[in-house]
UniProtKB/TrEMBL annotation:
The keyword Membrane is assigned to this record: yes
Protein name from the UniProt record: ABC transporter ATP-binding protein
Cellular compartments annotated: Cell membrane
InterPro entries reported for this sequence: AAA+_ATPase, ABC_Ni/Peptide_Import, ABC_transporter-like_ATP-bd, ABC_transporter-like_CS, Oligopep_ABC_C, P-loop_NTPase
CDD domains for the chain: ABC_NikE_OppD_transporters (cd03257)
Family matches, as Pfam families: ABC_tran (PF00005), oligo_HPY (PF08352)
Family: Belongs to the ABC transporter superfamily.
SUPFAM superfamilies in the record: P-loop containing nucleoside triphosphate hydrolases
Residues of the ABC transporter domain: 1-251, 357-607
Length: 674
């Protein structure tokens, strides 16, 4: 790719998505494109395959060559023969890559035969089965007959990799292939990509915003910002000494196992600009602590320096200055303005050790009818006999793979779904025993922040109406009072009060999540459930939201249940952590103790799967083998035994009970890791 620019035709005119981008990939090399959302990573990757042609885009300048063939200039028919055979793509969302009305096997076989007419249908089918087996899918003959919706996320991602490899491409482009996956499945996919690269001698262009993944898998890293490349270097060089302030900011924003929980996370101030609002000069200068007058006027060129490249006027200053401190580390980041409209009087003086929520033997089963050979009713055992408490003022983290029951437990906790059995107590009152009106009254004390900042707000409502709705539902507040309260809430979460009359589509993902947070705290609740609230965000925006939640928790005396699969973030925010597996709580411990001395083999495996953002500590991926079993048919005895390296005969027949092995440390395992 040499000096490539890509333009898109929009309602606001022609916008340039990437500008003067040059990069190369050697045979057998893995190159990672990193940067925040909106930096141009995906557009650059789609330009390589000319997929932008389908999105009102065009390559307005430059050339893209694969084995000497200029992809930017060849006709569509010749381009189709290259896709799949010479280059293939693995998309972030596998459900969007497969046609839901055709089986997995039909689609892989079609891809094989399209590029190799000499293969018969039977030969193509045999190769498809072998590919599914090679990418680690169990019972590949069965999976060939299944439809995309019948496979789990991890299995579907593997099937998409199999389809991409069906014609042995020389270049595999993987666009955020692990973003929506659990840490264990992520480790499996990364391990698979490494093995396949060596086996097929492929080159890989991996797009990611997770620098831990880049450190584990990349030979070279390319950093993009606002449509331009700002730095290129080998992985070891880039992590050891970044040459651009943006790269340094991204690295400092990473939450690691060693992040000091007593200090705020580092964040890059501001947000990435939109394509229609790109600044003059260096595009990073509005967020850069090193910006000078030159940066405001002149665009820096990508200069070579000892085999690596950086586009910055102040690289020498950066290298000689040592680590810089973010201006956001000052205590003035959030200021609460007390208002009689929405802030009640002083919180009660009850002891912090008291339980705000208490769950007693809570079970949630979903009936799915009778089986074909039995008259006994079957059920999905989403949550099974769970007991624990959440103390006032603490943040309780809840981790586990998809399908473990975390989100279901959260909904049962808020009584959005009634438990099948057991009881949920809020401040000593059983929610199931309350009348409808009384339960509605209690609900204003417990709120929720959702994972998807795009799907959790009504796009037709203005921001003021979205945040102000709780006042209409739970209180009699006038128009003026409501506006004043909402504007205070906007300021409180770091947004401009003028956002009141704007619509959600005018905001970035991080800003929309702030809108969701403002809505959640509108009635000054006692408890907030954050369900994967930062999972979909870039590393820098994620740090901003985590800091905001912690500040609000301290200032407003909030209690949190923080559900997540980003284990480093959960460790950082949580006082105690619970680990769920297939509807059961398998371990509870104080945060530091959980990560330093995990007692359950599942917890240990989860922690071992975390990518380490240090290339010098690069290691083999410690992936848990297999996938989580179906909650409709869980294994007998210990539910983790089918994947546990330490399982014994006792594990198959006797379910382990949750018992205390140290002060505040509970584990459900017959032979804990000690």
């Amino acid at each position: 790719m040499e000096r490539v620019s890509v333009d898109f035709v929009t309602g606001r005119g022609v916008l340039q998505a990437i500008s003067d981008v040059s990069l190369s990939i050697k045979a057998g090399e893995t190159v990672c494109l990193v940067g925040e959302s909106g930096s141009g990573k995906t557009v650059a990757s789609k330009a390589v395959m000319r997929l932008i042609d389908d999105e009102n885009g065009k390559i307005s300048a430059g050339s893209i060559k694969l084995d000497g063939i200029d992809i930017a200039g060849i006709p569509p028919q010749a381009l189709r023969s290259l896709r799949g055979k010479k280059m293939a793509m693995v998309f972030q969302e596998p459900m969007a890559a497969f046609d839901p009305v055709f089986t997995i096997g039909t689609q892989i076989v079609e891809t094989i035969r399209r590029h190799d007419r000499r293969q018969t249908a039977n030969q193509a089918r045999e190769r498809a089965v072998e590919l599914l087996r090679r990418v680690g899918i169990p019972e590949p003959e069965l999976r060939m007959r299944q439809y995309p919706n019948e496979l789990s996320g991890g299995m579907l991602q593997r099937a998409m990799i199999a389809m991409a490899l069906s014609c042995r491409p020389e270049l595999l482009i993987a666009d955020e292939p692990t973003t929506a996956l659990d840490v264990t499945i992520q480790a499996q996919i990364l391990q698979l990509l490494q093995e396949l690269k060596s086996e097929f001698n492929m080159s890989i262009l991996l797009i990611t915003h997770d620098l831990g993944i880049a450190a584990e898998i990349a030979d070279r890293i390319v950093v993009m910002y606002a449509g331009r490349i700002v730095e290129q270097a080998s992985t070891e060089e880039l992590f050891a000494e970044p040459h651009h302030p943006y790269t340094r900011g991204l690295l400092q924003s990473i939450t690691t196992m060693d992040s000091d929980r007593s200090r705020r996370l580092y964040t890059i101030p501001g947000a990435i600009p939109g394509l229609a609002d790109l600044p003059e000069g260096c595009r990073f200068h509005p967020r850069c602590p090193y910006a000078t007058e030159t940066c405001l006027r002149e665009t820096p060129t990508l200069l070579d320096r000892g085999g690596r490249q950086a586009a910055c006027w102040n690289t020498e200053r950066l290298l000689g200055d040592g680590p810089y401190i973010s201006p956001q580390t000052t205590a003035a980041a959030v200021e609460v303005v007390v208002s009689s409209v929405w802030l009640p009087t002083e919180a009660s003086e009850e002891p912090q050790s008291g339980a705000l929520f208490e769950l007693r033997h809570v079970t949630k089963h979903y009936p799915i009818g009778r089986s074909l050979f039995s008259r006994q009713k079957k059920a999905v055992q989403a949550v099974d006999d769970v007991s624990f408490s959440i103390r006032k003022g603490e943040t309780f983290g809840l981790v586990g793979e998809s399908g473990s029951g975390k989100s279901t437990l959260g909904r049962v906790l808020l009584h959005l779904e009634k438990p099948t059995s057991g009881s949920v107590l809020f401040e000593g009152r059983e929610l199931g025993a309350l009348s409808g009106a009384r339960l509605r009254e209690e609900r204003k004390h417990m709120q929720m922040i959702f994972q998807d900042p795009y799907g959790s707000v009504d796009p037709r409502w203005k921001v003021g109406d979205i945040i102000g709705e709780p006042f209409a539902v739970h209180g009699n507040v006038g128009v003026r009072e409501k506006r004043a309260a909402v504007e205070e809430l906007l300021r409180l979460v770091g947004l401009n009060a003028a956002s009141y009359d704007r619509y959600p589509h005018e905001f970035s993902g991080g800003q929309r999540q702030r809108i969701g947070i403002a809505r959640a705290i509108a009635l000054r609740p006692k408890f907030v459930l954050a369900d994967e609230a930062v999972s979909a965000l870039d590393v820098s925006v994620q740090a901003q939201i985590v800091n905001l939640l912690q500040e609000l928790g301290q200032r407003l005396d909030l209690t949190f249940l923080f559900i997540g699969h980003g284990l480093n973030v959960v460790r950082y925010v949580s006082d105690r952590i619970g680990v769920m597996y297939l509807g059961k709580l398998v371990e509870i411990a104080p945060s530091e103790q959980m990560f330093r001395r995990p007692a359950h083999h599942y917890t240990k495996a989860l922690i071992a799967s975390i990518p380490v953002p240090e290339p010098q500590r690069r290691r083999e991926f410690a992936a848990i083998q297999g996938e989580i079993p179906s909650p409709a048919n869980p294994p007998s005895g210990c539910r983790f035994r089918t994947r546990c390296p330490a399982a014994t005969a006792r594990c198959a027949v006797e379910p382990p009970s949750l018992r205390e092995i140290d002060r505040g440390h509970y584990v459900a395992c017959h032979d804990p890791v000690l």
